[in-house]
Amino acid sequence: DLISSTFSESFAKLVILAITFLSVIVMMFSLSLPLSFLVIIAGPFVFLLINFITKRTKVLFSQQQVTLGKLSGQMEESISGYSVIKAYCQEQNMINSFKENNDKLQELGIKANIWTGILMPAINVMQNIDFIFIVIVGSLLADKGIITIGLISSFVLYARQFMRPLNELASIYNTLQSALAGAERVFEIMDNKEENVSEGIIKETSIKGDIEFKEVCFAYVKDKPVIKNFSIKINHGIKVALVGETGCGKTTLINLLTRMYDVTSGQILLDGLDIKEYNLKQLRSYFGVVLQDSEIFNDTVYANLCYGLDSINKARCKEVCQSVGADAFILRLPQGYESVLTNDGMLSEGERQLLTIARSIMVNAPMIILDEATSNVDTRTEKNIKSAIDNMTRGRTSFFIAHRLSTIKDSDLIIHMEHGEILEVGTHEELLKLNNGYAKMYRLQVGD
């Protein structure tokens, strides 16, 4: 809002000031060249003064925006995480931290306003000095009969009109500095390359689901690789489980597969073709995805279940929800399947996750990705939806990310990852026989 209002108001003012400025210059030069040069010579000094002060206010306004961002983020965290703050008795620490950031913001605001406040009086002083010189030089010229006393009076008024746009410009410039300090953070986002969902030469085609990772490397930050020389071939129609400690690169690998990010080096092949050759929108339509975070939209249950589909099939929605055990809690909602869902605790995390699983089944995609799909449901509910997931993944290339190893024992291929690399690969029984990292993790979980 600050950026929008500042630019819209400032633009209109600048047009008026430019017309006034040019008109005054034309009138002055038509009356007296010596006095005109005397008026104009003050301009560069005013610009030097503006530049001197705005260099300092720019830094202060920028720091002010950063501190304001921290303060806003802290307020949001305090409200969204108030139960955790109370549970750990951190109320006073949060108050102290807020006060520290707020005091810093206040200090920066005072300094910025001091420098901004100096600008206008300083310009006025320079303007009055210029008036004195106009009167002195004008008096000398009048004494010699070159100009009249009335012309001196006119030039003082013209000088005031000449300075007024400069005063206004200084005020606008300060306001722009404040707005641009906030805009810098917006520009950082806008400067990012826009994702082109239409790129790729392969658009409409049926796929089998053969996937191959060929020496794939990826880093979020340069020289800090998250995935390192990852190579494996996955045949279509099998269940693949990715396991490993938190932060080993499992979710990152899935993001590379769906091109949320592009590989730093290497290739990911789908049915023998680099995934970059596929139309991005088409590529992502090949995957039914259930992520760790159960995202629910502010719309009806029907609309959430059919998200991404061209039409709503109510009968199919109910059938799928019954298969995953979501039908019972949906019917308890005020308007059942027509209820508009909100993010204010209307559904528990487990219920939200059941809806996202049902949504992925509705898509009927040829490949499935389940990232901790049952992490927020109880054991009984997990058992109920396992058969639905088995039906959904039958005959489709499926990727499971799980920390509960008991949920992926029947996978056709288990890839144990560590620090972005493949540590061991095999079925559940094969990895237990190897008695390496996977076997130790499994025994630790089952208490053997």
Could you walk me through the main structural features you see in this protein, from its secondary elements to its overall organization?
The protein has 448 residues and is an alpha/beta fold. The two termini are 61 Å apart. 58% of the residues lie in helices and 12% in strands. The chain has two domains: 2-190, ABC transporter type 1, transmembrane domain (ABC transporter transmembrane region fold, Up-down Bundle); 211-446, 3-Layer(aba) Sandwich (Rossmann fold). Helix 1 packs antiparallel against helix 6 and helix 5 packs antiparallel against helix 6 (149-190).
Compact overview of the structure:
The chain folds into two domains: 2-190, ABC transporter transmembrane region fold (Up-down Bundle); 211-446, P-loop containing nucleotide triphosphate hydrolases (Rossmann fold), CATH 3.40.50.300. The chain is built from 15 helices and ten strands. The protein has helices at 2-31, 33-40, 42-80, 82-87, 91-143, 149-190, 250-257, 280-285, 301-305, 314-324, 327-331, 349-363, 379-393, 428-434, 437-446; strands spanning 211-218, 227-234, 239-243, 265-270, 273-274, 287-290, 367-371, 397-401, 413-418, 421-426.
